[in-house]
């Protein structure tokens, strides 16, 4: 699924920019759509629409809070919110899923299976 690689690339770009610019970068995901954005402070830097038929099913970022579905990198490239990292779940029209998993240290990987709740992100 090329969309998972696109999300991974944007996470890595935002992480690298946070370090280079010494500023927080935020990714905002819109559930049940194909859209997400990358922001620096309140300025939108990138708006991405995923390939045809791919949707953002869910994220594990800050559930039930004002910051739900947002991931923030600190100036050193680590996770600020959520502090433990998390997962973006992408689905296609056939119900297949890919999981973009980001650790608290900023490592990003793609998986075909959802991480277990007891598994280190």
From TrEMBL:
Domain General secretion pathway GspH: 3-106
InterPro entries: T2SS_GspH
Subcellular localization: Cell inner membrane
Name the record gives this protein: Type II transport protein GspH
Keyword Cell inner membrane: yes
Keywords, comma-separated and alphabetical: Cell inner membrane, Cell membrane, Membrane, Methylation, Transmembrane, Transmembrane helix
Location (main, coarse): membrane
Topology of this chain in the membrane: Single-pass membrane protein
Spans traversing the lipid bilayer: none
One cellular component term from this protein's GO annotations in UniProt: type II protein secretion system complex
Record bears the keyword Methyltransferase: no
Coiled-coil region list: none
GO biological process, one term: protein secretion by the type II secretion system
């Amino acid at each position: 699924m090329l969309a998972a690689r696109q999300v991974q690339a944007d996470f890595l770009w935002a992480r690298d920019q946070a370090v280079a610019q010494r500023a927080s970068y935020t990714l905002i995901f819109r559930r049940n759509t194909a859209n997400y954005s990358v922001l620096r402070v309140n300025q939108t830097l990138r708006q991405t629409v995923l390939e045809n038929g791919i949707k953002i099913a869910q994220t594990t970022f800050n559930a039930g809070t004002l910051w739900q579905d947002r991931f923030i990198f600190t100036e050193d490239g680590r996770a600020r919110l959520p502090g433990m990292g998390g997962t973006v779940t992408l689905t296609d029209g056939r119900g297949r899923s890919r999981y973009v998993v980001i650790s608290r240290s900023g490592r990003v990987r793609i998986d075909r299976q959802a991480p277990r709740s007891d598994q280190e992100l």
